[in-house]
Structures are given as structure tokens and as C-alpha cells.
Amino acid sequence: MILPYGHENTTVRRLPWVTFTLMGLCVAVFFLVSVFPDDRGERATEDLGQFFQYLTLHPYLEIDPEIERFILRHVPEEEFRAFLEFSRETGPRKPSSPRRLAAEQAELDEIVSRIMASLDEIKNTPMFRYGLVPADFKPHALITYQFLHGGLLHLLGNLFFLFLAGPFIEDVWGRPLFAGFYLAAGALSAVMFAVRYPELDVPLIGASGAVAGVMGAFLVRFWRTKIRFWYWFGLIFTGTFMAPAWLMLPLWFLRELVFAQAMDVAAPESGGGGVAHWAHVWGFGFGCLAAVIMAHWRIEERFIHHSIESKITLVDNTAIERAMDTAAEGKPDQAIRMLTSELARQPDSVDTAVALWNLSVEHGSPREAIPHMLRVLGDAARAGEPDLIQAHWQDMMNMVPDLEIDPALGVRVAEIMHGVEQFDVARQTLETAARSIGAATPEGVAFRWVRLASSLGLPTAGVVDRLLLHADLPSDAREELHTLRRQPAESIQADQPAAEEAAAPVAVPLADDHDLQIMEATPESFDGHTLNIRVKGEVRRLVLERVEAVGVGGVRMDGGRQVLVVDLMLDAPWSDRHSLRIVRLMSTGFDPRKLAGGDSPMEAFRSLLGQMIDMSGAAALPDPESARGRPFRSFGSLDEYQREVLGVA
Prior knowledge:
alpha/beta, Rhomboid-like fold, three-stranded antiparallel beta sheet, 11 strands, 57% helix
């Protein structure tokens, strides 16, 4: 026998209230049902045994069609027919007395009557009313069956496995999402079980399908985590060992799959012989798929992580403290390995990444911490949080002179450092990012690099030349690049804004010679990188990296109605292009919840705008806060909005 009893993950950021609530509900329901013991099932079993015993001694009697149909739902027909044939060949013969025959038939019918009455009563028990009976499918049972259990061991087993995996998935996915995922895993496993055994009239009960879903998610999300096992073979061979989740959980899944198929062969249509192996299989598969989708779309990083970090109620730096104690004992290499392992478990932990960086720098090995620092600083840059970047970015570049950074991250960090008047750091960052700019670099990122570098007095010829190699570069963009290439760096440096102006919101100059080429569109879908829009009945793809600026404002239209206008500008208001190309989205044309999720349309708008601004790296107009709806700025008319935000008189 091998049983898990824990794993190396022992801390969470917040108390797992959803997991505790689910466990509490299972316990409460179990004891509520147990308080009122019900012997109707036992009586029916006794009567059924008496029926077969009496039929064996009187095989010549007629069997009521209703009880026969009930038996054939639980026993293969060929086995039941073979039993009857054997009993009639070897058992007693039919009595010659009609009176005796009638009395025996009446006694058998009385037994059948008691069985059918007990079965009718059983259908009113909690297990049948709230369990999922495939032959009598009730939608509410998809949820209620998950909180019913057939015995104390059944209950404790499910709660134990839920406690091992649930708190850690709840910690990284957040409470609402975890609760929905748990119930969905249980519901889907029940649906698939019912599809597998549509004629089964025995209730499916227990949380094992939902718990299997949590185990599947744990496998994908914490696949390298080592699980602790206790083994017992006979009375002598006992002990413990550790093995990674990527090895043990697939083995458990394979075991359930084999048992499910074996039971279908040994006892067809029985539902697994008392254990719903197929529910475990489908629950586990659903959990794996959900975790893969979460990882592919980076949902944790984009939507969940920052929300949880802002609401942390339980902080535990045990892993960091242990590593620091180990380093103090003169074992820095071991301490670094401990922190690296912790980051593998919680890659978004800022405290752990900073601790690893400080320890690595102190002991002369900063390169080991670079990937982790780039990840957390990149998250901070995308979230518009300059404090962490100011504290560590320059040190990181100084300690690793040949640092390679993604151009998009470099440009965003340089913009942040420029905004807080750290111009030297901004220049150094742009110079570092320039080494990675090539043909694969998005044009929008490269253009932002050139413009910021020009404003800081850096030579831009090399990057401009690489940009000019793009065959599909618009003519106006090509002209702008040629202008920037010819402009002396000294004259640009002399025009650097004063400190007071640098920190101010973006000021868009009015330009009477500009006109607007506005394409009114309706967004259809958004994958985080590309916005699919419908224009005059045709669906087109808009890659956000092509967007130079995002203008947002609440505009009072004719009739006094307030409308939120979102302009995705393919040409910035300060460009030399005469006609500014704009994709315009109006709040009256779509529901932002379909794109960004959530219950509140306004919060969905804020989330959608934040994602588009972060992903495109575009300038936010009229200023970063109001463009993200903190709060939205209002304008008396569309002309006023276009004049003040887009810079078009």
C-alpha cells in the first residue's frame, strides 16, 4: 500500500477559505444525513436475498415483470437466465396441488411487493434525491451530489486529497476562479459518467470527481513538486519516500483508467462496481486541460497575480528565512539552490526573486538571478509600478554589462525611467535594448525606441537602418525615419524637457494641418495580442503592437448621452503624417465583458483598456491614469475630445 501524506509546498499567501468551506460543507452534509439513519436500503437488500432464496427452492413460479426488469438492470441477462435454467433443472418440481401452487406464488408475490415498496421509499432518500442518478437525470444533482458521501472512509479520503492539493491551486488561481473550477470539474465528471452509463439507476455521490480535477490542475501547475509518500508492505516493509508530481499523478491516472476499463468488462453497465473510476478519469482530464489553458493564456500573470498580492492576508516567508539562515551558516550555494527551487514553485514571488538577487550579488554570481529578476521587473513594468524598477534596474545592468533584454521590455523601462527623470538610466537601458533589436522586433517597439532615443540624444542610425529594411513600412513612417536619421543628436539633446515638464501628462500639440481617417469598428474578440474587429460586416485583425497611441474619453453626444470613446491610433498625433489613421471603438457598440470578463461593464472596460495599453506599449492619452479609467475624463462634445486628446483642431 502506498499513500501520499504531504508535499514540499507548505505555505500559501492567503488562507484557503474556499477549500475549507468545501470541506466543511461535505462534513456538515455527511453528519446531517447520518443523524437520521435510514434502514430502507438494508430492508430492500434483505428482501431481495429472500426473493432469490425462495425462487431457488421454487424455480417453477412466475416472476413479476417489474422485479425482473429491476434485476436485469443490475445483473447481466445471460447470468440471470442461466441461474433460472439451472434452478429449474436441478430444483424441486412443480407441485400437483393447485392450492399449494397458488399459496407459494402468493408468498413470492408478497416478497416482491415488499421489495418494490422499499425501492420506492429508497428513491425519496437524500442519496437518490440529491445524488446523480443517470437514469433519472436532474440538473441540480450535478452540484449536490458532490457533497454526499456513502461512509466515513469515503468522506475522509476525499477530504484528505482535497486538502493536499486544493489550497495551492486556490492560492495561485484566486478564490472565485477556484470555486467555479472545482464545481465545474465535479459537474463535468458527473455528466460524462451519466453518458457512459445512461441506464444506471444507482446514484453517483461524492467529491472524488471534483477532487480529481484539482489533482489534474496540481499536476500541470506544480509538476515539479515532490510529494511525500508512506508505504506499507506486509508487517515489516514500511517507510516513506518522495517522488515528483509529474511521475506519481500520471501513474494514479493510469491506474484509474485501467480499473475503469476492467470494471466495464467484469461488470458491464454497473457504473464501476461501486467506485466511479470514469468520473475520476474525466475529472482529472478536465483539471489538466483547465491548467494548460491557464498557463497558455498567462491568466494568472495577467489577471490574478496582482489582485491577490494586493489583498494578501497571510504572509509567510519561511522559505526565504530558511535560505538566509543557510547562507549565514556559510552555505551560500545551498541557499541559492533553495531560493531557486522556491521560485520554481512560485515564479512570481517578488520577495524571493529579490532575495535571490541580493544573495547572488553578495557571493559573486548575479547571472543566476537574472532570469528571475527580469520576470518580476517585467511584470512591474507592465503594471506601471516604477518603485521596484527604480530600486533594482540600474544595479542589474551595472552588475551584468552584457545583459540581454527584450526590446519591448527595454523600451517600456526606459520610458518609466525617463518619466521619473532618471535620464542616464533610460539612455543606458535603450543602449542595452538596441543590441537585441532586429528584423523580428515589432515595428511599434522599434519606433518607440527611435523616438525616445532621439529625445535623449542617442544615435539612432543603426536601429533606423534596420527598420528601413521592412518592405511593408508605410511611406510616411519611412519619411519620419529618414528625418530622424538626418537630425543631429546634439540638437535633440538640447531640446530635452525640463524636470517639471517631464513628469507632466502627455501634451498633444494642436495641428490644424492634420485630419483624421477614422475607421469605426466593433470588437469581436481579444486574445491579449490581437484584436479582431468587425468593419462594415468584415472581420479584420488588428495587431496591438502597430498601435502608437490610445486615446480614451467620455464624450457627451447629441441628446446628452454619455459615450466612452476609445481611439486606437496607428499614427501618433505628434507624427508628421497629414492624415492620422484611427480605429474607433464606441461603448455603445459592444459589451466589454465578452472580451475581458467580469460582471461590471465599467470594470471590464478598465481591464480591457489596461491590457491593450500594456500589450501595445502605446502612449496613453490624455494621460495614463484617465486612459485606464482612474477615472475616465469627460468632454462636452466629440470636437472637444478630438481637439484636446487627439490634437486635431
